[in-house]
Structures are given as C-alpha cells and as structure tokens.
Amino acid sequence: MERQGAMGRFTATMVVANNQDVQMARGGASSPDKIRSVTIDGVVDSGAANLVLPRRIAQQLGLNVVGQAKVRYAGQRRAKRQLVEEVRVEILGRHGAFQALVEPARETALIGAIVLEALDLVVDCTIQKLRPRDPRGIVAEIE
Hints:
By secondary structure, the chain is mainly β. 15% of the residues lie in helices and 46% in strands.
C-alpha cells in the first residue's frame, strides 16, 4: 500500500469518506452506495500533527467546514485554512473519524501524528512503511 517518495518520505494509500454518510448508512437512513468516499495517497509525516486534505477531495466528500485554523509552513510562511470535520480515514484496515485542514493547491493528503496515534500505526523509517503496532488490534495506553 505504500510507495517510496523523495528524501525518505513515503506515501500510504488510504480511503477517506464523509463519516456522516457512513453513519447514515449504518443506521439504515441511507444506502451504502450513497457514501461519498475516495482512495487517495497520503504523505506520512509523524512530525506534523494534523490530517490535511486537498480542497478538491474535501469538496468531493461534501465535508462540513467548521472554522479556520492558522497554519505555519516549514519556511515560516503563515496562512489561514479551512477546518473540516467528520473525515473518516481508513488505513491498513483501521479507521477513525477526524478533523482535517484543507489545503487549496495540494494534490495528496498529509497524514500527521493525530491519525497515526489514534489508529495505533507505527512509522517504520527503515523500510518506509506504516505498520500496526500490534497486528491483533489497537492497543490503548491509559494511566
């Protein structure tokens, strides 16, 4: 599912969907064929916190804009970006619902630490792949 990229970065294929559509279908209020979803590559970046989606994907999924967030890029440039919610992400058979920043000119998604932690996925830099920390399921740590 992963493809190697430049400078040690790699991509992971994921399915993103409108989680409201998923819940409506699950509850019987809508049919599963009404779920808006897309398979997209995401650049894995454990140094980034957030999930970032291209604008075209957020629009295609019909995601609700819930506000704006200030973002700072690596070169210290700053901007405001839309924040959407109810993004269902599935990677390696694990799924969860998240908020995402919307980047207008981006072609791929960005998978940050929040998604990686919630889905209990480990970045293996040696082989440039994501893998489950425990293949039997998510392990939660509670103090």
